[in-house]
Amino acid sequence: METTITDVIVIGAGAVGENVVDRAIAGGLEAIVVEHELVGGECSYWACEPSKTLLRSGAALRAAQRVPGAAEAVTGGLDADAVLARRDARVGDWDDTGQIRWLDGIGATLVRGHGVLAGERRVRVTAPGGDEALLEARHAVVVATGSTPRLPDIDGLALARPWTSREATSAERVPERLAIIGGGVVGCELAAAWASLGSEVTLLTRSGILSKFEPFAGELVTAGLRSLGVDVRTDCSPDAVRRDAVDAVVLALPGGAEVVADEVLVATGRRAGSEDVGLETVGLAPGDWIDVDDTMRVRADGLGWLYAAGDVTGRALFTHQGKYQARAAGDAIAARAAGAPVDDAPWGAHVATADHAAVPRVAFTEPEAAMVGLTAAEAARRGIRTRVVDYDLGWVAGATDRADGYEGRANLVVDEDRRVVVGATFVGQDVAELLHAATIAVVGEVPIERLWHAVPAFPTISEVWLRLLEGYGRPGHEGAA
Question: What residues does NAD(+) bind to (predicted)?
């Protein structure tokens, strides 16, 4: 078998793999990327892009209905066919031609097929037709194979042909009845999307709604989903699931109750996409999250050439964090290949330090919930002495201008010893756009005293920053309420 030699090989051409390749090439290296599905990966075709497109129409309609004058102009509901057609266009009808043009434009080489590690710095690729090719890297191989949905151990579930996020974001019709198992971001977003499109949605969750956010986020989102007609049942998980004779899904609940639906969506977490990547050929365990340092290099003896980035590391399962890790990895690989210094100190140029304490996350549900950094509970677990400041977003002029009866809440978690913000959460209509300012404050460790001089424009929802700081206490008036 002929061997093709290059500088860097990336297994996986999703958003993370694309960014590794881009940075490596920008650093003067040659790169090959291997992909067995669509270039652009999960985010582009079955996750972020289609789900947010499905959500947007309902959010826009509700925003108009909350503003007198605009509300009177709304004379109908959503056109589901038009929403699905917009979704199809947004994902390019699941055609990756445009993404391939982008790879060509940066000088990357795409190899179609299933790539697996085949020993030190080697990757074997099996093409769709069965032909095999062997690739060898001079400097680095990067595993960027993402994650896959995890099915809970519920009797009969796997045989009931459940939807995962893939089926739920690419469905060609609106199910009349949809059951969702899981109350995390995916479950809450797709509950809002399909309820807006006319589905009768039942959401079952054992661990609560948005349990990784501040508790008030789960409370407000639960109320918001119920306002859309979603039947939210917390502390509830099915004992068994089956398809009946007429192809309906029957979920048997504790105590003998049942939920009957046309489809069941499982949104109970992800597992590492590392089962069929050849990890065993280099001494690693298939199926495990791949342990890496902050330059994304694998932490194992003799594997200084192997890197991993994105979901497969298990560090922070978000597209934006995966792309951040990819930039660190690509830059670090290029620096090491050139014999240049690697800036691997915390917050250095070649590391993904933010994964540990400054991860931004948004649930684009009803209403939006956005947070960055630590919740108050997590900060306490880490031994940080904190003060938490809360504010009702409905009292902010920019919010009340946006919608009559605006409901929302914001909070800051402040490290009292360093006097910096370590966490922030916002819940309400359009709050996702507040998040980056909070991310900058957390990453930059901006002193509370300095934040007072970041003046929010009036009237915007960002004025909540001023109100939160007033709640914390003015400089020279520490402790004032």
Answer: 182-189, 269
Beta carbons of 157 and 332 less than 8 angstroms apart? no
14-43: average pLDDT: 97
Q: Looking at the structure, do residues 135 and 15 belong to the same domain, yes or no?
A: yes
Q: How many helices (H) and strands (E) does the chain have?
A: 14, 21
Task: Provide the residue type at 253 as one letter.
Answer: L
Rounded CA-CA distance 124/119 in Å is 9
- Parallel/antiparallel/unpaired status of strands 177-181 and 147-149: unpaired
Boundaries of domain holding 420: 367-472
Alpha-carbon distance 364 to 428, whole Å?
10
Reading the block at residue 353, the tokens are 């330090």
- Say how far apart CA 178 and CA 168 lie, in whole Å: 10
Q: Return binding residues for FAD.
A: 52, 115, 145-147, 311
**Contact in structure between 398 and 462 (CB atoms under 8 Å):** yes
* 114-146 confidence digits (pLDDT tens): 999 999 999 999 999 999 999 999 999 999 999
Strand residue runs (E) in 120-210: 122-126, 132-143, 147-149, 177-181, 200-205
Q: Which of 423, 412, 410, 443 is nearest to 374 (CA)?
A: 423
Tell me whether residue 328 is in a domain.
yes
Average pLDDT value for residue range 177-192: 98
Give residue 1's pLDDT.
73
Burial class (CB in 10 A: 0-12, 13-18, 19+), 416: exposed
Give the dihedral sign, CA 34/38/40/45.
Answer: negative
> Which amino acids are annotated as binding site for NAD(+), given as ranges?
182-189, 269
CA–CA distance, 166 with 148 (Å, rounded to integer): 10
Order of strands, sheet of 231-234, starting from the edge strand that comes earlier in the sequence: 231-234, 200-205, 177-181, 263-266
Q: Which residues contact 161 (CB under 8 A, 6 or more apart)?
A: 243
- Can you tell me the distance from the alpha carbon of 364 to that of 280, in angstroms, rounded to the nearest whole number? 39
Instruction: Round to whole Å and give the CA distance between 310 and 313.
Output: 6
Specify the CATH number for the domain of residue 412: 3.30.390.30
Residues 468 and 379 in one domain: yes
d(CA 46, CA 132): 28
Distance (Å, whole) CA 216 – CA 206: 17
> What per-residue confidence (pLDDT) applies to 478?
52
Domain boundary among 324, 354, 384: 354
pTM assigned to the model: 0.94
Percent of the chain with pLDDT over 70: 99
Q: Which residues are annotated as a binding site?
A: 52, 115, 145-147, 182-189, 269, 311
